[in-house]
């Protein structure tokens, strides 16, 4: 999914029917599908770029291109470049919600198929539940507990069945993905504390500031890693196509689509992109790389998707609480 930011939003029953039961416009549905397809493709692009350039180089180029793309968008949209004293906070947020997660996903791309990373990315709301309860005084509910059990059962099933038999490399790849989702979970609460509690800031500015902070954080690692990368790897056009796509398309453009959807159809409906990203990630991996899908993966994926539903719908409550999460 791009950076991650979340807010816990409570709805009355009337709000629920307005945002869910009311028919969605075809244009909104198409934009939602486009966003899921773009974020699902990010795992494919990493899977292609990382073996050639390495995890550090790919992660840095993603956030750097994302920063440039957002800067161009801000210029085209004539968004004032005043950050109201929050640029430093946005940059610090970028380390947590972009630099570290993107690096972790790039490391995972060395060993995990694109579809695996995509479905593990969907555990972000589950991590948000654990982190919220442990560090931010969020309460567990029955649905959240059931969601946690189903989610981690799904992770175990994916990692221990079929061709995906447990190996040290597979374990490290899964751990890297879970570290990334944990960072996204922290970022959701920290966005509210660092940005929202200080009067808020235009979402595009927050996204730009976070990519700037992520770029500066990864720059020293990139300066060390880049000279050690074989010159031939930098000359592969397909690799550069993936790098540019993951930066400009999966980060900059995706953010604009996401925030526009939040405004047009609301957080509750926009959140459904969480369920759509894994199928697209699996589809792109199968179409482009010929990645195979086994029964354990299908069963584990269904468990994780059910877990996300339990957590994000607040299960059996009449006032659903939703985490609006950006993954990617």
From TrEMBL:
GO terms for cellular component: membrane. It is a multi-pass membrane protein. It holds the Pfam family EamA. Residues 32-160, 172-312 form the EamA domain. The keyword Transmembrane applies. It is found in: Cell membrane. The keyword Transmembrane helix applies. Keywords: Cell membrane, Membrane, Transmembrane, Transmembrane helix. The chain crosses the membrane at residues 32-53, 59-77, 89-112, 118-136, 145-162, 168-191, 203-226, 238-258, 270-287, 293-311. This is Threonine/homoserine efflux transporter RhtA. The lineage of its organism: Bacteria, Pseudomonadati, Pseudomonadota, Gammaproteobacteria, Enterobacterales.
């Amino acid at each position: 999914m791009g950076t991650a930011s979340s807010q816990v939003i409570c709805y009355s029953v009337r709000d629920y029917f307005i945002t869910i039961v009311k028919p969605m416009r075809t244009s909104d549905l198409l934009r939602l599908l486009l966003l899921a397809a773009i974020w699902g493709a990010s795992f494919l692009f990493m899977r292609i770029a990382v073996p050639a350039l390495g995890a550090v180089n790919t992660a840095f180029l993603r956030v750097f291109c994302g920063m440039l793309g957002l800067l161009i968008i801000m210029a085209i949209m004539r968004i004032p470049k005043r950050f109201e004293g929050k640029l430093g906070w946005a940059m610090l947020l970028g380390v947590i919600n972009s630099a570290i997660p993107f690096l972790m996903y790039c490391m995972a791309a060395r060993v995990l198929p694109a579809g695996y990373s995509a479905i593990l990315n969907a555990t972000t709301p589950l991590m948000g539940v654990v982190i919220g309860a442990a560090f931010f005084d969020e309460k567990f509910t029955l649905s959240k507990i059931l969601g946690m059990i189903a989610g981690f059962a799904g992770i175990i099933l994916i990692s221990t069945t079929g061709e995906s038999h447990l190996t040290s490399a597979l374990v490290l790849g899964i751990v890297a993905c879970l570290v990334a989702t944990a960072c996204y979970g922290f970022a959701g609460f920290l966005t509210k504390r660092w940005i929202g509690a200080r009067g808020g800031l235009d979402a595009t500015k927050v996204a730009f500031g976070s990519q700037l902070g992520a770029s500066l954080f990864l720059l020293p690692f990139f300066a060390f890693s880049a000279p050690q990368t074989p010159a031939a790897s930098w000359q592969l056009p397909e690799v550069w196509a993936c790098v540019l796509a993951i930066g400009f398309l999966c980060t900059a453009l995706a953010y604009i689509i996401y925030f526009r959807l939040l405004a047009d159809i609301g957080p509750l409906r926009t959140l459904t992109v969480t369920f759509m990203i894994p199928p697209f990630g699996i589809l792109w991996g199968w179409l482009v790389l010929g990645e195979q899908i086994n029964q354990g993966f299908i069963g584990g994926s269904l468990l994780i998707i059910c877990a996300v539903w339990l957590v994000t719908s607040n299960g059996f409550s009449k006032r659903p609480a939703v985490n609006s999460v950006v993954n990617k």
